[in-house]
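Field: sequence (string)
Field: structure_tokens (string)

Example rows 1 and 2, in order.
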Amino acid sequence: MMTIISRLLVVSALLSVPSNAFVSGKPNKPRSSRLKAVPYKIGAKTEGVLMNNRFVVDSLRKVVPDDMEMSDVDLLRFALAYPDDKAGAEEALKNAIEWRKTTGKHIVDAAKDAVAKATANGGWENEVVRDAAPHADVINDFITPKAVITTSTEDGDLVYVIRASQIDDKELMNKASVEQVCDFFMYAKEVHNIVANKRSEKGRLCSVLFANDISGVRKAPDKRFSQALTSSSDQYESLYPSLAGPTMILNLPLILQAFVGLLKPLFPKSVQERLVFKRAPVLASLKELTPLGTDPLIKTKFVREVKERAVPESGSFCTNLGLVPIEIRGEYDSYR
């Protein structure tokens, strides 16, 4: 069991670490620049953060082509990801723009169209988004609300929840390629990016929390599935900077809770200080994750449980932690 959990956490570590944070096993040192972004606190009002970083955002605006739409919030996230490195922020933005115009264009276009259709009536039509995902005809049979779901905190942050034990990853990878699964994951991240940034325009700067539920784990993940996760994670930081928040590892078996001190070093140091190992009784009581999207009372209890365990009342915003893509559920009242 210890070996199985360790391998699962290694996968989580790969998902959590920013792809450009380490070179040859050592952290990159930021280059100095006069143009600096001003850090912010969790839950900060977007208007205030933008005001403090307006000069940086306006500088990045010059990099965006005339035929591409990028909001101030989009650019603000790049500024916040490189607070001491104007050149680094511009380089990351240029790389993201290139991806969105070439390799990732079909993903970006599909996500944009799906969100527009899903919110056309003032609510959220989740099946529209699911059906528009790349290779949905194969992957949607395995990535279901029973195992992977997104909900919202009462403050408007998104919460990715994944229960790996309820994904038949071996059978999935027998029917889909690593590249196909990676595209599916990137599509989910693009959808979440759109939703979080739209919400951020109307109030606080929203982020994405990651809840990895270990309940029911009996085997290590399929190597091909891990490869797909890692592949998508390698692109996450440069494409979606300053989007993700704390990472929670929930409901470790009792026998392993005493070894948390040994498990934490599996993660990069930049992640360790933001990593949360906790019991989540509401989540553990569910046979599957579907009620988080269908039962308002259970959802409320869970998101309050999440807030207690992962979101401090004050403190610097957590830097990006790569996340597993998930099905989207919950209410999106901010779109009305």
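Row 2 begins here:
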Amino acid sequence: MTAHLLNCFVEKSIRTRYLFREASVCLPPQPLLMANLVASAYCVVLAILLVRTRSHSGPEGRKYYKRIGTNVTLPCETSDSHTPVQWRFNGHALIHNEGHFLQGTNLTLINLDSSHSGTYSCHEKHSGSLKNQITIQAGNSPGQPNVVCRSNAYPDTFYCTWQLASPTYIPTEFDISVRHGDKEIETIKGANHKNRCSIRFPEMFSTSKYTVTVTARNALGSNSATISFNEISIVKPDPPEIIEVNTIPKSPSRLEVKWRNPQSWPEPDTMPLKYFLRYKPVILNDWQHVEVTDVPFHTITDAYEGKEHIIQVAAKDSEIGTWSEWSKAVHATPWTALASDYKPEENINNVSDILTSTTPSVSANRQNSSPKVELSMILFLGMFMVLFI
């Protein structure tokens, strides 16, 4: 780029000089002369800006992944190892601490951990010019993945998930391979979950084993894990959903519970489920259990009168697989007789009498006050007669 601009500058300068030399014989048109002058100036300005930009941008930064717990030395790349330099971390001058030390112009990071991850830049101390820039990301190579496979949509599909026991702190990719007997099977990775994939069963009730291998890989290393299983061993429905709990009038120890199959179970008619119901009063620790087949409802007959109960249900294929997790807990209290509001008529009359006697009327107040007024008048007249005599 620089060479091109310099060539442009030289070419335009020669052409401009030639035009000026010929001006004594035949003066060229003014627009042509001005266009060449502008073009020459444009080339000169671009060349200067490019040179200045390159001199201040310094070398392009490089990124390295380094293992946690190791020591890492970053070179400043100065021409003289005795040149005073300043190291910066994420744009801020590094302050001396136990996490690093300077050896000449080089910076050594000690016992690397995630706090060391960032961008380091070396500058000449006096001019501030950038000499080197390196980005460090501390991390670990992946451990062995923990792989789990399950079919909650038997006999259509199953899925596998995997996770690492400890984080790597750096980008880590996962590759999965699934084989049924000797045949490789296509996998579909989840769009929103990089640690999950779905697989369609190639055939029903197969006796051939499935083999799943997951490989974790990053810049610091790789690790893999392999599991094998028969299809019937991974069948595990999602929990059912309790949709209704009803009390039964005048039955203080009964509760009617209704639920529905998990939506993920594809064929409840051809692949029926059986259920396991558990319930207990909130105040007790021990559960009561009932196994239910064929129907998604059950009437509890031994509930504790007047006590709040917790109710949950699980599901399982009627012949193969394992039980689902428990459904979300639902709380309910059996029917309770309400206290009667009936009161005898005489009691109501008595209450009215009491209210009447304790709430004097205005006329009664006036009647009660008349004798007091008469007595006051007599006393006043008697005192007046005594003073007069």
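free_text_note (row 2): The first strand starts at residue 62 and ends at 67.
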